[in-house]
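Input record (one chain):
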Amino acid sequence: MNRPVLKIKRVQDVGIKSGSVVLVRVDYNVPMKDGKVKDDTRVRETEKTIKYLITRDAKIVLIAHLGRPKGKIESKYSLKPVVEVVESIMGTKVHFAQDCIGEKRAEIINNMKNGEIVLCENLRFHEEEEKNDESFARELAKGCDYFVQDAFGAIHRAHASTSAITKYLPSSAGFLLQKELEYLEKIMSNPPRPFIAVIGGAKVSDKIDVLYSLIDRVDVLIIGGAMAYTFLKAQDVNIGKSLVEDDKIEEAKKIILKAFKNNVELLLPSDHLIVKEIDSSAKTENTQSMAIPDDWIGVDIGERSIAIFSEKIMTAKTIFWNGPMGIFETPPFARGTFEVAKAIAKTTKNGALSVLGGGDTLNAIKAGGISKEEFSHCSTGGGASLEFIEGKILPGLSALSE
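The corresponding structure, as predicted from the sequence alone:
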């Protein structure tokens, strides 16, 4: 699918002046624990855009969602704990508005100084947000002069704060969104070759469209994780009691056939780490072949697969990676994922372009003690990056286009 070229204004091109009120959609859907922010990565990713607006002497109004409160006010989904994190990263006063619309918010905006920030309460406390409601978008825009989209992780949703909002304010892309698009375009339009995609995770069903799209572009497709068992079963390989999507076996056969017709090298695990039960204390074995014995469960790629995948990755000039190779959250089953991550990091160091997408992938490199800086780009939006690669039109992007 060929996506139309969208002309999108950049925040640095719209002439924001001192005293301008700038509404910024950010992705602060951060992990929380005991009412505290557990990981501030998503806040840090917006630093360049927000600090740019601070230097422009603007008043900054941040809107975001957290979790899935489904239009009801739930204290566990409040964005209030994020205020102190934003304040420490941005180095300016951050106010909190107990609603993302209304008079109290307007009062805070009027009274705050230029260069200060107000973080508004969860957009999804209003059911109109997910309905892309225009009157709600108009309320969000009230009292603001510009809209800046910097929530890449939300642009594949047609919501009021990503889509309808652009009808009411001059709109542009923040620096994070610009960076995401730049790297994804690089791997989609004219990637340095060989181009290798490494796709893992649990379900084939989540990745069918992305696999079809990648087969039209890559030289090598490596499939790991539980989704590999569906592909193996499609080739009549015994997979024991491993996770499988029986209703996707025909689809897996079509993908294998398309790879063959496109002259794409498709690599599946040639051996596996197996257990009798999924438990960190369970006895593990490495299979001698692709097949998994009847009563056993595959939980990671095996030693030979690690060697083959790593060696192949080292030949790449472009790499896209989405999804782990096994159940990395359980330490004894994490080696395959960590070794693949190290091979991609090493290849990047040797000059390859590497783009990582998806929360699980980023959690995996973190668990493996590998820095994000060892890769060219780590996408902040798993769903959005996959839909972009599938060739879909992302509602938040088309709404921004001139």
